[in-house]
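Weekly modeling sync, notes
Attendees: S.R. (lead), two postdocs, one rotation student

Agenda item 3: backlog of single-chain predictions. S.R. asked that every request posted to the team notebook include the full sequence so nobody has to chase files. The rotation student volunteered to paste the first one in as an example of the format we agreed on. Action items at the bottom.

Example entry:
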Amino acid sequence: MSEDTVRSVEIERTSVGKYVVRNARGGSMSMGTGADGSFTPVELLLAAIGGCTAIDVDHITSRRAEPTRFSVDVTGDKIRDEEGGNRMQNLRVEFTVTFPAGVDGDRAREALPRSLQQSHDRLCTVSRTVERGTAVSIVEAAGTTGT
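Predicted structure, as returned to the notebook:
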């Protein structure tokens, strides 16, 4: 893979069930088991799915008009499947977007359904990866088991 295709985050344990996630640009956020206000990994998955499409849709529609409301609700059911493993199903991304009255708002409203479809069909890396399914390799780094 070329350097410009690589995406990464680092996760560091801060205490039992609590972690900080950092990106290469210096951003950080807390993640954990849900015992406190931090996001759980499943919530971050939902946020990534909705956030990816939200960014796509926002870039396309806001060129026409600034929304007066832009919110995204992402839901799903966490289940134990027939193989005994945990996973999500019934993922749903619901947009509530309004634009001001007038020609520019009309243009943005007209672009909204098309932008949602474009994001789903080709732009959103996150939802396309989830829908297509991608293998995940979990490995132990060399030399980490010793003292």
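Discussion: group reviewed the output briefly. The two ends are 33 Å apart (CA to CA).
Action items: rotation student to repeat for the remaining queue; S.R. to check formatting next week.
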